[in-house]
Amino acid sequence: MPERNDTKGGPMNLVYEKIGHIAKVGLNRPRQLNALDPGILLELHRTWTDINEDSQVRVAVLYSALPNIFCAGMDLKTAIPVLTGARPPADEAEEWIIRGWDGKGVGEAMLKVSYVNKPVIAAIHGYCLTGGFEMVMGADLRVASEDAVFQMREASLGIMPTGGGNIFLPRHVGTCRALEILLTAGNYDAKTLYEWGFLNRVVPKDRLMDTAMDLAEKIAANGPLATQGIIRFNREMRMREFGDLFIREVEIGMPIFASEDAREGVRAQKEKRAPNFTGRY
Q: Is 110 a domain residue?
């Protein structure tokens, strides 16, 4: 592997570096526990674009630069007011997220739709919640540490997943198990999701990045035309099978984002109390 170590990206939201033929993309919002706000999503999109355009990159590893969590999910206090029109966008990233919520842009940043043309390995530790969980569903390979916990908590907040979870999970773990994860909003440990076929490896936390990088090095040593051809076919198969469903998921989910139940769910979370859902839009 050629010697190359380039550091790129914004220091506040992402740690982005290239080591030989491998790009490492680290989520890095410490105060927000890597919650996905418009800023980090726009940076992710630009990073995936750079990876696409760099012929020296053959594989990417997505990970968390924080010690105890992968991702706290979508930054709802930012996303809901902007997406529902409760307030106008305040900057470039918020304008971008409105334009791209239904596929292009946000869907590409979160690995929901076919965009990245290289294999993506997700290395997951700690809590991996909602939008973070959906993002790793779109990765090609998934390695988790023994302490990883996965949760799709949207229903407990009165909202519906719109980042591909309704489509990806049945494909990965089967319909019954997927609906259990989505409808109960419960916690699922790495051992369970490995047994259900969602994860490629479960390893001790101190071996997580070594394991992910070992997989990346094995892929990078293979012919790039072959590996990218495999990825291209799998991306196209996904979009042919599910392309319209990604759009429909947003069409059904967005009115729920704007509902009284969603507002109550966010209020209850902020006030640290049980929500009182009424089932009203």
A: yes
